[in-house]
Specification:
The protein is mainly α. It is 65% helix and 3% strand. It has two domains: 31 residues, no CATH class; 357 residues, no CATH class. It has a two-stranded antiparallel sheet with strand order 1-2. The mean pLDDT is 89.
Length: 397
């Protein structure tokens, strides 16, 4: 919305009022992505801080709260801090997604990339809402069956991938050997970090598979990380900062060419969305830090993870998400390895064995008697290191 104010002076000048246009020339600042990125971050933060207490009270009034103990505490006996999670309002993801959408509406110049990202985030938010609602009404931590959630995520990711594959929207990259600018499809061309040029082109089926895995994997990885107060939302803010930088550069033709990363027209406004995610994440963290006043629930974790995955796909950087989102990768791998090893050893020896004391990984360290805050802060530090490594790929090519 604010972007279109920057066009007002030119519109007035064209109608024969140059003096009025000069008086309103300051509105042209809204055309700069850097200004709108800063405005989006601050707006989302202030919206979250202002709406937070109201949303929490509203959720309490609706009795939208966790009246069951976390599965990790039920099964693993993790009660080191003596603080129960019962009675804490959930579905706080409504606050996060709402702040992001409102902020994007105000500060972004809407284009297919922005619309696709916010639309996919809304679908996953509704899926998470349904899952959280099922947990509350059934008063158990199981919620919707995993197969149902996975089916919806796969269907959404597949539709997005097919849409991008056949969409006449491409990224631009300087060709090898000075061949000029080459156009690359967002799905069928595969880029990897540390390489200046695509490793595969015309790989439609493989690119579609990579797109689906990136969106679905990211959505579920953030969901698995959401087990301690502030862990998932703080990690999301860190990864969003990485993609704020990547989307800003990808949307700037000269900077993208200089750094040898694909230039995606319109990606600059994805930077505005990333800034909104950062502001909303920090605003929510104000209420979600230990001891949490509200949980984001699947309503927030599925939506934020899916949005990060889609943004990575839209700027041709899904493998950068593996690096920058290293904490999410660690958490997801810990679950896969734990389950895989347990099933393998049970098949071979008749008795299942565990690699970790408990999965996801953050619960393993809780079982080692790390306080919840220790786990969260140390994972933040690891997340920052992964983020720095991801940003280093901009120059190491």
């Amino acid at each position: 919305m604010f972007y279109y104010l920057s066009q007002l002076p030119a519109w007035i000048a064209q109608r024969g009022h140059p003096d009025w246009a000069d008086a309103l020339s300051g509105l042209r600042v809204f055309q700069y992505v850097s200004f709108r990125v800063a405005g989006a971050a601050v707006t989302a933060l202030l919206l979250s801080l202002w709406l937070g207490p109201r949303v929490i009270e509203w959720l309490r009034g609706l009795r939208v709260r966790q009246d069951y103990e976390d599965r990790a505490r039920e099964m693993g006996g993790i009660t080191a801090d003596g603080i129960s999670k019962r009675g804490v309002p959930t579905m706080g993801g409504l606050l996060i997604v709402g702040a992001i959408d409102l902020t994007a509406l105000l500060w972004a110049q809407w284009n297919p990339l922005v619309s696709l990202t916010l639309g996919a985030m809304l679908v996953l938010c509704l899926l998470g809402f349904y899952d959280d609602y099922s947990k509350i009404t059934r008063q158990q931590s199981g919620g919707v069956r995993a197969a149902v959630k996975l089916a919806v995520q796969l269907a959404l990711a597949l539709l997005v991938g097919l849409y991008l594959w056949h969409l006449p929207m491409n990224s631009e990259l300087p060709g090898a050997g000075g061949r000029g600018i080459e156009m690359h499809n967002l799905v069928s061309t595969i880029m990897v970090p540390f390489a200046k040029h695509p490793v595969l082109t015309g790989a439609g089926a493989l690119g579609l598979l990579l797109t689906v895995l990136t969106i679905v994997g990211s959505s579920n990885a953030v969901n698995l990380t959401d087990g301690l107060d502030g862990l998932a939302i703080g990690s999301t803010a860190i990864v969003s900062m990485v993609f704020l930088v990547f989307t800003y550069i990808a949307g700037h033709h000269d900077q993208a060419a200089y750094l040898n990363i694909p230039h995606v027209p319109g990606a600059g406004d994805l930077a505005v969305v990333c800034a909104a995610m950062i502001g909303a994440s920090f605003g929510f963290l104000w209420f979600n830090c230990h001891p949490a006043q509200v949980f984001m629930g699947d309503t927030g974790s599925l939506a934020l993870g899916g949005a990060l995955g889609l943004i990575a796909v839209l700027i041709h950087q899904p493998f950068v998400l593996l690096i920058g989102g290293g904490v999410f990768v660690m958490e997801a791998l810990s679950v896969l390895l734990q389950r895989g090893w347990f099933k393998y050893t049970r098949l071979k020896t008749g008795e299942g064995r565990r690699l970790l004391l408990m999965s996801p990984l953050h619960h393993h360290f809780q079982k080692l008697n790390w306080h919840e805050n220790q786990v969260v802060i140390r994972f933040y530090i690891i997340g920052v290191l992964f983020a720095v490594l991801a940003l280093a790929t901009l120059k190491l090519r």
